[in-house]
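Milestone M4 deliverable, item 7.
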Amino acid sequence: MVRVSVVGAHGRMGGNVVKAVEGAKDMELSVTVDAGDGLDAITPENTDVAVDFTVPSATLDNVLSLVSHGVSVVVGTTGWTDDKLDQVREAVGKHPGTSVFIAPNFAISAVLADYFSTIAAKYFESAEVIEMHHPNKVDAPSGTAIHTAKGIAEARREAGLGSIPDDTKSDGGSRGQLVDGVHVHAVRLRGLNAHEEVLFGNAGEQLVIRADSFDRSSFMPGVLLAVRKLSSGKYQGLTVGLNNFLDL
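Output delivered:
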């Protein structure tokens, strides 16, 4: 049995993780903590893998603390920068036997949409990303959209493509955030859950890749997959992206 502790257990995502772990035949729920609780109760003696679904302002400290105590972590909280990822790499390097997995998105549909986008990117002159979420989401654009945009940009560089055409001179912010040369737009609308649309264009044609997660339960198979992978001991250090655990 894989012993799993959940940080952020009373949150919307954390609560779903608790239910998913309790429903998994190969896992048992060990410790649950939430905002205001310390992490000292989570130790290698009672936890094989901790799952963090908290907020961007807290997740780095949570991960560094858990790793320092010898606990591996699956992270679903977004807001990760290159600097923060470097801090995690340094931490796991100092604590052999620990591993950290961070996913911009745990939905299989979103991971595949991201993967398909990197394949399509080299064939199109234009590309833009639109992410749509519920209004309670605290970050914009989403970590998934940023990850998608960076993947598109890298694929374009490898293909020797130039800048995406855009003659806009003054847009008042309507062109969205520029992520590695790719425009990313964020929509916050009541009734939505988590959705991403990637638009590719050439003269006379368009390709649209879209992923929709209508309920938070869509993320749970990915979370449980990540927990199983980390508990196997085959993955050391920092791993980013659920695509690393899929046969793509």
